[in-house]
Backbone:
């Protein structure tokens, strides 16, 4: 046995000290993550108790899956909001090639200034809040908004019969989809612009040498180059089919379109925060989380089977 | 002749392409443009309808905005949450990313996984709402800045960047006797400025745009943000409450003044983003690319 000499002991001590110092430095951040990301999970127990605000959980009766039963079978609002979530998400999925189209069109532009201008303008809406989006489109589509002014001055419609898209129940799914597209198409296109620039230039050169036309180059070089990215993003958005988000539907909600705009996230807000039924709202929230996790696992398996690799 | 024929379809393609992209840019920009010309038009003129040009240019709407109740307080709250929230988030995320990037850290991979996994689950609105209340963050300015301090996505981006910095730079400082914190401040942070800039832009835009925390949990008027103030103004005249008789009886003109105020307030709330956005765009894009490589 060789006894470690003083210097080595000192070195060892110093390394141990370093490891502890780092851990101590990390602890405040670990605590923050634990408090704000993990503790809310414990709030899931509310779904299994007949919780009423003000009465401690210890003195409230355990009700098992009662609220899940109520959510799925007891109130009509859940199924309706599930339908709305699916409908709006599916319309969004149908439009998912739009950013690809924008990226390809941008790629074909030779004038750098014009290209930059289009890219800058189309990305801007991604960085404004839904409150602003609501204000902008209210100005255009409300009863006394720009659209009606134009239509009236062109004598397309009469003054006492203005269009009201914001209050049109039948148009809600399409209008909300169009709004999401307006807000995020430019931003989503950036990722495809990046994958196009990642395509080997030799492929383009070879296609040019072969005398391929512009359409042929787009079809045979550009498109195959971005399809892998497209598929990953498509699969991910399938797993998010029930996560429409709340802000958009909160700002555009109004009684006229209530039945068609209430997505699952809004439903949770309405029964939980407006209706104070924490237990039922939490049960719906849990169901939503499990639904999207299940979808994520399914698309992950699909991805592995078809592409040979997992997404997450 | 034959040469001409070969060039023709290419030109047609370009023409169609430029037209399509211009339409795209127009659809994006027009709503912004419309609200701006509305805000600088005379309210009674504007209510008769605008299309491309302002009517009766005036600054009166902007002067009226100054007299709105609590407008300066809301502006101050929004600026405060943006500045303080961003500083806290950027500093904490980068320090934490540095710590997690150190191989010597005890339980390093466990801590990293503990952080990253938070990107994949979300307890939901109600548990979050109840927790904030239990922590007494409702009606509290800290609600705006504390829960968002650590963002797992930012930590991943910064950690990836820090790992590319040559270790020799750091070692020389450590040999000179600098502790981890000193090394972070004097070497790692300045070396990571490109990614720090990206995070700063993401975080500050997020803070400026945030309003649901205010909406759900803060009723105190003194803590109201500009976004929620605008939201409340927009909601004052609900489109559904406008019945057909009201419109035909000329209520349209009477409501025009609030419309101008709303448009003006919208411009003011959007302006900071529109002004910094063209300069910041490259940082956003950089962040997205880094995220794409990682994910």
Residues:
């Amino acid at each position: 046995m060789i006894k470690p000499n003083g210097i080595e002991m000192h070195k060892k001590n110093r390394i141990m000290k370093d490891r502890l110092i780092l851990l101590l430095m990390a602890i405040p951040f670990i605590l923050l993550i634990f408090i704000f990301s993990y503790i809310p999970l414990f709030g899931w127990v509310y779904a299994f108790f007949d919780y009423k605000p003000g009465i401690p959980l210890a003195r409230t009766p355990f009700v098992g899956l009662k609220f899940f039963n109520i959510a799925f079978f007891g109130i009509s609002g859940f199924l309706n909001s599930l339908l709305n979530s699916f409908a709006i998400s599916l319309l969004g999925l149908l439009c998912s090639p739009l950013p690809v189209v924008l990226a390809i069109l941008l790629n074909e532009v030779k004038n750098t200034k014009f290209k930059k201008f289009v890219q800058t303008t189309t990305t801007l809406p991604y960085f404004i809040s839904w409150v602003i989006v609501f204000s902008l489109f209210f100005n255009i589509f409300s009863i006394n908004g720009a659209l009606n002014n134009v239509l009236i001055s062109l004598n397309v419609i009469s003054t006492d019969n203005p269009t009201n898209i914001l209050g049109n129940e039948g148009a809600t799914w399409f209008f909300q989809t169009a709004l999401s597209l307006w807000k995020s198409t430019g931003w989503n296109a950036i990722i495809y612009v990046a994958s196009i620039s990642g395509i080997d230039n030799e492929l383009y050169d070879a296609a040019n040498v072969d005398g391929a036309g512009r359409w042929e180059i787009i079809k045979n070089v550009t498109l195959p180059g971005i399809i892998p990215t497209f598929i990953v993003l498509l699969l991910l958005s399938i797993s998010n089919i029930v996560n429409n988000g709340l802000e958009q539907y909160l700002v555009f909600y109004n009684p006229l379109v209530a039945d068609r705009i209430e997505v699952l996230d809004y439903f949770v807000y309405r029964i939980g925060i407006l209706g104070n039924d924490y237990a039922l709202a939490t049960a719906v929230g849990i169901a939503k989380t499990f639904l999207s996790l299940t979808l994520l696992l399914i698309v992950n398996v699909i991805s592995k089977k078809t592409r040979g690799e997992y997404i997450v | 002749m034959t040469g001409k024929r070969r060039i023709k379809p290419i030109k047609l393609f370009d023409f169609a392409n430029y037209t399509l992209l211009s339409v795209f840019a127009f659809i994006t920009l027009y709503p912004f443009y419309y609200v701006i010309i509305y805000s600088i038009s005379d309210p009674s003129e504007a209510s008769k309808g605008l299309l491309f040009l302002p009517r009766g240019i005036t600054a009166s709407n902007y002067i009226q905005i100054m007299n709105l109740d609590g407008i300066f307080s809301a502006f101050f709250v929004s600026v405060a949450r943006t500045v303080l929230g961003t500083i806290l988030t950027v500093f904490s995320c980068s320090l934490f990313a540095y710590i997690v990037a150190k191989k010597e850290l005890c339980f390093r991979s466990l801590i990293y996984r503990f952080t990253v996994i938070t990107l994949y689950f979300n307890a939901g609105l109600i548990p979050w709402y109840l927790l904030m209340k239990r922590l007494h963050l409702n009606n509290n300015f800290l609600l705006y800045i504390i829960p968002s301090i650590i963002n797992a996505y930012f930590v991943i981006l910064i950690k990836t960047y820090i790992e590319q910095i040559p270790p020799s730079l750091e070692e020389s400082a450590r040999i000179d006797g600098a502790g981890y914190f000193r090394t972070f401040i004097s070497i790692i942070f300045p070396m990571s400025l490109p990614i720090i800039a990206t995070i700063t832009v993401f975080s500050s835009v997020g803070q400026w745009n945030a309003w649901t925390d205010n909406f759900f949990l803060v009723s105190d008027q003194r803590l109201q943000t500009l976004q929620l103030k605008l939201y409340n103004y927009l909601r004052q005249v609900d489109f559904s409450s406008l019945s057909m008789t009201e419109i035909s009886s000329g209520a349209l003109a009477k409501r025009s003044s609030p419309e101008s105020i709303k448009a003006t307030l919208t411009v003011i709330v959007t302006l900071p983003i529109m002004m910094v956005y063209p300069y910041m765009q490259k940082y956003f894009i950089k962040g997205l690319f880094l995220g794409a490589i990682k994910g």
